[in-house]
Amino acid sequence: MGGPMHLSDHLIQQSWICMVSTEERMHALELPQRAEVMLSLCSGNVFAACLPTRLPSILLLGLLYLVYVLTGGAVFWTLESGPMELELQSIREEVAKLQRQMPCLNQEAIVKVAEVRGGVLHKASSNGLSLRDNNTLGVWKFTSSAVFAATVVTTIGYGNISPSTTTGQIFCVFFALFGIPLNVVVLNKIGKYMLVIARMVSDFIEKKINRKRGIGVFIHLISFISGVLVFFVVPMMVFKVHEGWTASQAIYYCFITLSTIGFGDYVADDNPDRVYPDWYGPLMGVWIFFGLAWLSLLINHSIEILETVNKLCKCGDSAEDTDQADEPATDDQMTEVKTPSNSPQDGGDTKTANQEEEPKEEEPKE
User: Fold this and answer.
1) CB 3.0 to 4.6 Å from 73: which of 49, 84, 117, 149, for a disulfide?
2) Residue 47: pLDDT band with limits 50, 70, 90
3) Are the CB atoms for 80 and 138 separated by under 8 Å?
4) 154-172 residue pLDDT tens
5) In angstroms, how far is CA 339 from the centroid of its own chain?
6) How far, in Å, CA of 239 to CA of 195, rounded?
């Protein structure tokens, strides 16, 4: 009897500790999340309530998202790489023909000739064969195909490469049809989880310093500055080194990418004249994914601020209307109120009084 009772006491103690820690986190969660935690507590699953909120669902969605994008990239690579190789072979033959016809010209002169003729340079740039430096070159490799799949589901759409085969175009339609909603759901989950973490940190600091006023604003400010550093300043420095862009060009590319505008005038990891490290492409994919979640969260905060300002303006207008309605009537207004005594309605009342007096005049005299 002693062993089981001791084990039961230990479980009760651990459950109580877990419930206390869960209660401390409850007010940092949103209403649906609180309901989920309370449901876990009421059902007896106390230890499940102590786990990080929605972390398993986020991991599963993130894994599904990654598999979906990589699978789409592999399919695009399979469908588009064959025709691309044939096109590249044709372009190489045309360039070799130019070199045979003009053996005295160097590489830069060959580029000038191809530029005058137009067709060779255009086909080379559109298929990723570099005759000179260009910021918007593309080629159907596995890495570039995976990046293209990511730009489809995130609706960035640089436009530097696109499927040219009929099968690839049809697959792109259905891939985007299911991938875009998945992308929205995943980014929404990631953004909410970032917000929950910020609130938990804010509550923790409030309890440590025993002060609540201004802590939330301070934490949000720190989160904003950290996001700017992680998703704009650090990538800007990396792009300056590996892409040869200026600071303004790198910042411009970061915002155009993370806001899903995607002009396509600058595309990272896509210049065949440069040698990129192996970690460059995967790290850029991680940056785009979390950067989209952070910037979407920031845009949602901006929308909430604008809506709050709009509500305050409406409240101010309604308060002014109420004050005008409560003002005492002036002498002119009182005169206007008394004036309608000669209105048709009053006239009707006078006429009724005269009609009541008429029978008295018709009474016979004795």
Assistant:
1) 149
2) very low
3) no
4) 999 988 888 989 999 999 9
5) 63
6) 28
Q: Are 239 and 250 in contact (CB under 8 A)?
A: yes
The number of beta carbons lying within 10 Å of the beta carbon of residue 185 is 13
DSSP characters over 235-266: HHHHHHHHT---HHHHHHHHHHHHTT----SS
Look at the alpha carbons of 99, 103, 107, 111 in this order and tell me if their dihedral is positive or negative.
Answer: negative
- DSSP code of 7? H
- How far is residue 58's CA from residue 151's CA, in Å, rounded to a whole number? 21
Domains and CATH numbers, the chain: 16-53 (no CATH), 56-306 (1.10.287.70)
**CA-to-CA separations, 239 to 101, 267, 272, 295, in angstroms, rounded:** 39, 10, 15, 19
C-alpha to C-alpha distance for 326 and 320, rounded to whole angstroms: 10
pLDDT over 90, % of the chain = 27
Report residue 91's pLDDT band, with 50, 70 and 90 as the boundaries: low
pLDDT band at 355 (very low <50, low <70, confident <90, very high): very low
Alpha-carbon distance values, 220 to 2, 44, 188, 233, 255 (Å) = 52, 35, 18, 18, 20
Query: Distance of CA 67 to CAs 125, 146, 188, Å?
Result: 30, 11, 18
Residue pair 176/309 in contact by the 8 Å Cβ criterion: no
Q: What sign for the dihedral angle of Cα 72, 78, 81, 83?
A: negative
Q: How far apart are the first and last CA of the chain?
A: 124
- Residue count (the chain): 366
Q: Identify the three-state secondary structure at position 303.
A: helix
CA dihedral 319, 322, 324, 326 (to 10 degrees): -140
Closest CA to 191 of 292, 61, 60, 67: 292
User: What distance in Å separates the CA atoms of residue 40 and residue 49, rounded to the nearest whole number?
Assistant: 6
Surface-to-core class of residue 156, CB atoms within 10 Å of its CB (0-12 exposed, 13-18 middle, 19+ buried): buried
CA nearest neighbour of 252 among 197, 264, 119, 241: 264
**Alpha carbon distance 147, 214 (integer Å):** 42
Please give the backbone phi and psi of residue 210, each rounded to the nearest 5 degrees, phi first: 55, 50
pLDDT at position 288: 93
